[in-house]
């Protein structure tokens, strides 16, 4: 199968990697060559880490890289694709514009998927002339490690599109969970609800971020606490999702002030070096001074 991934960022290059590892020919596209190169470098780094841990053989790494290519041309990326997965930023109009342009370039039987984590897939697909060919494929970060993909069934999604997408997900060694197109789907809605309550607890001085996270990791067997996860995903992304869910579902998703202040200050988590934790080289090294807002 020929797979096209639009976006070479954290999610995009992760999706491209797992598709190529499963034997698909993959083209990854972004708007600037530097972004494409960064994405390809990240994939190679992930694979080298897998080799070092005996999770990936050198031959598997080489074969995966051989099946990957990058481009800044949308037409070159999608023209022969059987499946196009958009992983562009979480902006409704950008996603609608992207899928509409994709549809003008692909074959009639190509499936178009959105990797949105919370936006309405039905609304995104309404930009298509044939929206029945589309659906949501919500991957989780880090894609090459996390085993879940939410298959989001929009109002327009056909049975054949759903069957195709489910088979693809299972073929890349992921577990497919079918969900309806409700705000936040299942995972984002539950995950954000837990994360926002953890932020409120820090804001109210109930416990430090490290203690909240440790409680969830050891008490509930979560692999990562909700505040560390928020930092890893990006606090700006968390804020955008909360504002969308508040608009759609009500005040229980109102963003807490501590989150708004951090985003306004540019303290977005791992990618900026500070959020609920201080980060260096991708690792937590401490807590910021303002983290306990008593």
From TrEMBL:
EC number: 1.1.1.35
Chain ranges passing through the membrane: none
Gene Ontology annotations of biological process type: fatty acid metabolic process
Any one Gene Ontology molecular-function term assigned to this protein's record: NAD+ binding
Keyword vocabulary terms for this entry: NAD, Oxidoreductase, Plasmid
One Pfam short name: 3HCDH
Site (Important for catalytic activity) location in chain: 138
Domain 3-hydroxyacyl-CoA dehydrogenase NAD binding: 2-181
Name of the top EC class for this enzyme: oxidoreductase
Domain 3-hydroxyacyl-CoA dehydrogenase C-terminal: 184-279
Binding site for NAD(+): 7-12, 30, 90, 95, 117, 141, 271
Domain of life assignment: Archaea
UniProt KW Lipid metabolism keyword: no
UniProt cross-references to PANTHER family, sorted A to Z: 3-HYDROXYACYL-COA DEHYDROGENASE FAMILY PROTEIN, 3-HYDROXYBUTYRYL-COA DEHYDROGENASE
Protein name: 3-hydroxyacyl-CoA dehydrogenase
Source organism per UniProt: Haloferax volcanii (strain ATCC 29605 / DSM 3757 / JCM 8879 / NBRC 14742 / NCIMB 2012 / VKM B-1768 / DS2)
């Amino acid at each position: 199968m020929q797979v096209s991934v639009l976006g070479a960022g954290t999610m995009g290059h992760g999706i491209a990697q797992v598709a190529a590892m499963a034997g698909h020919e993959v083209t990854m596209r972004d708007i600037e060559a530097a972004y494409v190169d960064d994405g390809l470098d990240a994939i190679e780094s992930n694979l080298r880490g897998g080799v070092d841990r005996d999770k990936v053989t050198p031959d598997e790494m080489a074969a995966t890289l051989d099946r990957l290519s990058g481009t800044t041309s949308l037409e070159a990326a999608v023209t022969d694709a059987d499946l196009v997965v958009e992983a562009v930023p979480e902006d409704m109009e950008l996603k609608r514009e992207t899928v509409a342009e994709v549809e003008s370039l692909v074959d009639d039987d190509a499936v178009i998927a959105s990797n949105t984590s919370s936006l309405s897939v039905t609304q995104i697909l309404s930009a298509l002339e044939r929206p029945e060919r589309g659906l949501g494929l919500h991957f989780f970060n880090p894609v090459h490690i996390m085993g879940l993909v939410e298959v989001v069934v929009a109002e327009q999604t056909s049975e054949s599109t759903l069957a195709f997408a489910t088979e693809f997900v299972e073929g890349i060694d992921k577990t497919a969970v079918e969900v309806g197109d409700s705000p936040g789907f299942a995972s984002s809605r539950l995950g954000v609800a837990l994360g926002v309550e953890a932020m409120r607890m820090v804001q109210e001085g109930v416990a430090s971020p490290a203690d909240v996270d440790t409680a969830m990791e050891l008490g509930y067997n979560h692999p990562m606490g909700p505040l560390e996860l928020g930092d890893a995903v990006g606090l700006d992304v968390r804020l955008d999702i909360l504002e969308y869910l508040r608009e759609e579902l009500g005040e229980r998703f109102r963003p807490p002030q501590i989150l708004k202040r951090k985003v306004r200050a540019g303290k977005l988590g791992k990618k900026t070096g500070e959020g609920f934790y201080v980060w260096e080289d991708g690792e937590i090294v401490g807590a910021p001074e303002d983290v306990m807002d008593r």
